[in-house]
Amino acid sequence: MKRSGKIFAVASVFLFLVSSPVMANVVAVAAGIAPCVEEVVDLYVKAGGEPVELVKEACGPLARQIALGAPYELFLASEPRWPIWLKDKGLLTEVDTFATGQLTLWHVSSDPIDESQAETAIIAIPDPETTAYGNLAKQYLDKIGLWDRKMNEKRIILVGSAPQAVAAVKARTAEMAFIPLSMAIKAGGSYTSIPDMVIEHVGGLTAKADDGARKFWAFCRSENATPIGFL
């Protein structure tokens, strides 16, 4: 008998957590902002906080896993859409903004890049249905009249997350990628910020959150975490 993909995904998460040598607070984090959250975790632990276990995935799959009972205590999303969806279901509390993100057009070369190059380039984009920056990229390309045309010309490659978009460019499957500014800085190469394409990163606590998760969530929203800027 075949297991559904959703049930298998949640079961895999449980297996991963049970097999972990140390049971830390478990935080679900959007893959595109995970590198910055990792730095926040380092600051938190150095300040005396307990270890935090990050589970990284696109926002949509993580939200659905929470809805199915995955053992996450805190959800750090790169957009408001999925936290609000969970809040409306009564599955997320203390929902709040913890950072702001910026959409960029990035390529692996050190040559300067300009947003006008999006018109002809093959671009890797995270799935707009499940990711914040894919959704933002689609809004931008719709705004300048390129989304439908580039889709018809097969000049858009949809991938599961921002890290996968970076990987597609590095593998030369795509020439450029729309990714968060925080990831573009860490990926090297060159990037240009897309004007007015910013988004709030929103998080919240699940019913499984204990005191440790609550402390980390407070730290994420405090001035102690501001040195790790997302913009």
UniProtKB/TrEMBL annotation:
What Pfam families does the entry give? SBP_bac_11
Homology family: Belongs to the bacterial solute-binding protein ModA family.
Q: Which InterPro entries match?
A: ModA, ModA/WtpA
One Gene Ontology BP term is: molybdate ion transport
**Superkingdom in the source lineage:** Bacteria
Q: Which UniProt keywords apply?
A: Metal-binding, Signal
One GO MF term on file is: molybdate ion binding
Instruction: Name the chain's protein.
Output: Molybdenum ABC transporter, periplasmic molybdate-binding protein
Signal peptide range in chain numbering: 1-24
